[in-house]
Amino acid sequence: MDDTKRYERLLNRYRDGDISRRTFLTALGAAGVVAGVTGGPMGMLARKAHAATPEQVRFDGWGGVVSEAFEKYAFAPYTEKTGIDVVSGTFGGADEYIARVKAGQPGEFNLAHLSGVFDYARYHGLELTS
């Protein structure tokens, strides 16, 4: 089964009330982070680092328990395996994050856990992806 089908099934389960909003967003966010870190289909949403081998990548999210889980189960193993540090940041909303990306340097913001597919589509529509 391809990733598009998986995301569609996840969305349908959410719409049918089989899973909570929190579970849906956590699963979608985790899939996005994993795909972004490994260069999967959602990796297009991450700005490419200009260095051949970056010393660090930046992840911005909402903070709290979801970011703590990313740190423990995704970023720490990634850093251990690659030697590339993951620097975590937080933001208050998609508008704040997009303003930071627009004001930042290319490659400064690498990965983000936004609130939903519409925020990712907006981010892509502003040509902030690579």
TrEMBL record:
NCBIfam families: TAT_signal_seq. This is Spermidine/putrescine ABC transporter substrate-binding protein. It comes from Thalassospira lucentensis.
